[in-house]
């Protein structure tokens, strides 16, 4: 944590000011679906067996200051990132080398690759892929340089189930609303102004991505009506985040969608003789739909695969003619090993996918140095850095797999590695810590107010639709998310229970 | 309850159909603010001390069939009702005779009248009044006539705090949504069609009424910025109903409003030397607003007046230059005695306010016969009808005061009157029971599903802005509400915990 580049923030509130802000926040969020289902620790299943209760989503009371040029760069570079990851997903040869390195230590990656091979053997029947991506950044101020200008450094690139696009639009609306009713005290309003608060367009823009895929699929081959399928986890507390995309997909694009829990895929869908994916909703006997697009909001974590049946379900979906959001190869392109390979100092890989030098240079500037923990030259250097308490303090150790919650930070790295069998070290990558400027905010979770130091993570959504042959049909930046967490937790997932949805208050820093 | 004029309805649902409908209803309602704060019996204050939890508002699963010509007549006649009640509110002499009859038995009415007299002594400084009215009807099929055509009969006319305008727009949106995703089974869709489901415009239309009043007030006389004041009850479970009006008032009309609990009026507002009402929000030290319009969502029931302080607060507000929604006289015009006097068979009163014979005749058709329980000729007739078990079975006994919960029905009337001192009889009116056709629906409350016979009550909103001199500046019909309750309870208030918000499915009956 470096010194703050931000003005004194947020302002202190009198009891009356806090009360007014909180009351308006609580009512606005429920009135506009900025909500989640309560955690079982808050409301037990026996109290609310049918699940009708909801609570305000965890949000920040104030929009967090964010350097304007960093925000603008994040949005501006998204189309290049979309192209980069679609290029990676099309490069099976290259992905194979990455996957093979991981296969020994990451069973999940190995199984995903097996599915790809199995479908490939049979032959893919869909050459379109949809990506609803999210590139996550932190603001970094180089502690080694005096007067260093803040810049964005990528934390990770999500190629599957990028969440919070539904709630992000709402929270930026809410902060704008709170400003418009003068709920922020006068000493804050030189900083919080309407034109400092960019409205995230993530809801309509991600929904438009699904609609573009739906249209690109073409007409029905099975004579059934067409639909989009949201493949979801069973009980989903973050359901409204997904619902807002569904509602926008229907209201603004006229596209029908259904939600199917991952464990119901095999019972509720089948492939016809042409491998069209046919969905038969259990509630509508005799009525079936042909699926144009499978939108995975499940299946991204090993936890979703309890046994062989789930793997069979994934294979079943991948074999189908439906456009996958994302395809298996795109899913694999999002594994941290790929990010690491691209960001390994002096790596030749970025140039392979981004021939334009200026673009490649611009992308490279957003990478924090990442090292493998293998026995390559960079890997050996990383092992030295990670096992020494002094140097380890500038690094974070991350598992290659998706899904937060298991990062090892700074001084904890050497003892962690000491306990870990060395053969498992390559399952992790070592990343230089991004050093965000000191910042404070107030997080509201279930009515509890937590004030203190926070870290914000800017997520920029991207929509990309491409053919395996290389043609890119659609490519756009699709709004943003700011997730903010207490700076003690050093974890980033709001869903995981540590953070809050936020919006950017742009400042010139 | 007469025989049904409706088709077989609602359709039976398979478990899967019910599940699909319920899941979509539960998610849509929270995602769109069709919500209430949970009752203390569902979520205790100790579990959720800051009040962040919300639950879906009680709604019907299906839109209830409603005769199209009845719906159309209710909407068409609203402007005439607005004129009628604004004329009554302007006729102090006439109101005085009504109030004087009640004063002995209804302390609340007497106190309201005292306030009027006190302000009158000093002189009113505002000649504009705003009414946000709601005229409530039931469908009546005369049991004495074969092949009787259904018609609407007025249950009551609300001149203050007409509620559910905020949620009504949402529930008609929701039923349309459920239809659009084919959540209603095929056997229902000959009845439930998009063009059978009129969208209630109550949110934007009522908000536009407040905005019209705000503009008509003119410019600030105190040099403070202008605002609308929602005077509310302390803890308000139905807060989102009110919030949707506030949000529409701001977003669509650019008008600021504040919520002030009734018990905070004296501490947070003052009158300046010209009796401008100045509101100083506790959260904004040094910032004050001049109130253009007082919108009462409290103060309509004796329960809101714990002691003299509340009466002082009401007087304080009435003395101000702010436009009242409604004024004291308009509030008094809504007492049931007025409805009774108008609806007493062969009454001369309607013609006094509605000189146009055709309009008067049309209004009269919506009245159910209502009798006083005094010693007039009609009153003596009523006493005979009410004390005889045979004839009492076609009647309901209602207190003159506002607020549901105390009606006495049919066979219960004679024993009730027997126990009541005869001097208190004039506090009640006797009304011929409206006989609604048999109808079924499913009510969802806190996830509990109650299926069975129901009674629907159509509420038609009206906006009217007038000068005490007689000029009507604005007059429009402002959308509708359908409230549906189990036909056992014979009570109508959703807030009181017995009913649900519904929408009309128009049928030709």
TrEMBL record, chains A, B:
<feature type="binding site">
    <location>
        <position position="485"/>
    </location>
    <ligand>
        <name>ATP</name>
    </ligand>
</feature>
<feature type="binding site">
    <location>
        <position position="483"/>
    </location>
    <ligand>
        <name>substrate</name>
    </ligand>
</feature>
<keyword id="KW-0547">Nucleotide-binding</keyword>
<feature type="binding site">
    <location>
        <position position="409"/>
    </location>
    <ligand>
        <name>ATP</name>
    </ligand>
</feature>
<dbReference type="GO" id="GO:0043295">
    <property type="term" value="F:glutathione binding"/>
</dbReference>
<dbReference type="Pfam" id="PF03917">
    <property type="entry name" value="GSH_synth_ATP"/>
</dbReference>
<keyword id="KW-0479">Metal-binding</keyword>
<keyword id="KW-0460">Magnesium</keyword>
<dbReference type="InterPro" id="IPR014709">
    <property type="entry name" value="Glutathione_synthase_C_euk"/>
</dbReference>
<feature type="binding site">
    <location>
        <position position="402"/>
    </location>
    <ligand>
        <name>Mg(2+)</name>
    </ligand>
</feature>
<dbReference type="InterPro" id="IPR004887">
    <property type="entry name" value="GSH_synth_subst-bd"/>
</dbReference>
<feature type="binding site">
    <location>
        <begin position="236"/>
        <end position="238"/>
    </location>
    <ligand>
        <name>substrate</name>
    </ligand>
</feature>
<dbReference type="InterPro" id="IPR014049">
    <property type="entry name" value="Glutathione_synthase_N_euk"/>
</dbReference>
<feature type="binding site">
    <location>
        <begin position="494"/>
        <end position="495"/>
    </location>
    <ligand>
        <name>substrate</name>
    </ligand>
</feature>
<keyword id="KW-0317">Glutathione biosynthesis</keyword>
<keyword id="KW-0436">Ligase</keyword>
<dbReference type="GO" id="GO:0005524">
    <property type="term" value="F:ATP binding"/>
</dbReference>
<dbReference type="InterPro" id="IPR014042">
    <property type="entry name" value="Glutathione_synthase_a-hlx"/>
</dbReference>
<protein>
    <recommendedName>
        <fullName>Glutathione synthetase</fullName>
        <ecNumber>6.3.2.3</ecNumber>
    </recommendedName>
</protein>
<feature type="binding site">
    <location>
        <position position="457"/>
    </location>
    <ligand>
        <name>ATP</name>
    </ligand>
</feature>
<dbReference type="Pfam" id="PF03199">
    <property type="entry name" value="GSH_synthase"/>
</dbReference>
<feature type="binding site">
    <location>
        <position position="156"/>
    </location>
    <ligand>
        <name>Mg(2+)</name>
    </ligand>
</feature>
<feature type="binding site">
    <location>
        <position position="134"/>
    </location>
    <ligand>
        <name>substrate</name>
    </ligand>
</feature>
<feature type="domain" description="Glutathione synthase substrate-binding">
    <location>
        <begin position="227"/>
        <end position="333"/>
    </location>
</feature>
<comment type="subunit">
    <text>Homodimer.</text>
</comment>
<feature type="binding site">
    <location>
        <position position="156"/>
    </location>
    <ligand>
        <name>ATP</name>
    </ligand>
</feature>
<feature type="binding site">
    <location>
        <begin position="160"/>
        <end position="163"/>
    </location>
    <ligand>
        <name>substrate</name>
    </ligand>
</feature>
<dbReference type="GO" id="GO:0005829">
    <property type="term" value="C:cytosol"/>
</dbReference>
<feature type="binding site">
    <location>
        <position position="242"/>
    </location>
    <ligand>
        <name>substrate</name>
    </ligand>
</feature>
<comment type="pathway">
    <text>Sulfur metabolism; glutathione biosynthesis; glutathione from L-cysteine and L-glutamate: step 2/2.</text>
</comment>
<feature type="binding site">
    <location>
        <begin position="297"/>
        <end position="300"/>
    </location>
    <ligand>
        <name>substrate</name>
    </ligand>
</feature>
<keyword id="KW-0067">ATP-binding</keyword>
<dbReference type="InterPro" id="IPR016185">
    <property type="entry name" value="PreATP-grasp_dom_sf"/>
</dbReference>
<dbReference type="InterPro" id="IPR037013">
    <property type="entry name" value="GSH-S_sub-bd_sf"/>
</dbReference>
<feature type="binding site">
    <location>
        <begin position="398"/>
        <end position="407"/>
    </location>
    <ligand>
        <name>ATP</name>
    </ligand>
</feature>
<dbReference type="GO" id="GO:0000287">
    <property type="term" value="F:magnesium ion binding"/>
</dbReference>
<feature type="binding site">
    <location>
        <begin position="431"/>
        <end position="434"/>
    </location>
    <ligand>
        <name>ATP</name>
    </ligand>
</feature>
<dbReference type="GO" id="GO:0004363">
    <property type="term" value="F:glutathione synthase activity"/>
</dbReference>
<feature type="binding site">
    <location>
        <position position="336"/>
    </location>
    <ligand>
        <name>ATP</name>
    </ligand>
</feature>
<feature type="binding site">
    <location>
        <position position="491"/>
    </location>
    <ligand>
        <name>ATP</name>
    </ligand>
</feature>
<comment type="similarity">
    <text>Belongs to the eukaryotic GSH synthase family.</text>
</comment>
<dbReference type="InterPro" id="IPR005615">
    <property type="entry name" value="Glutathione_synthase"/>
</dbReference>
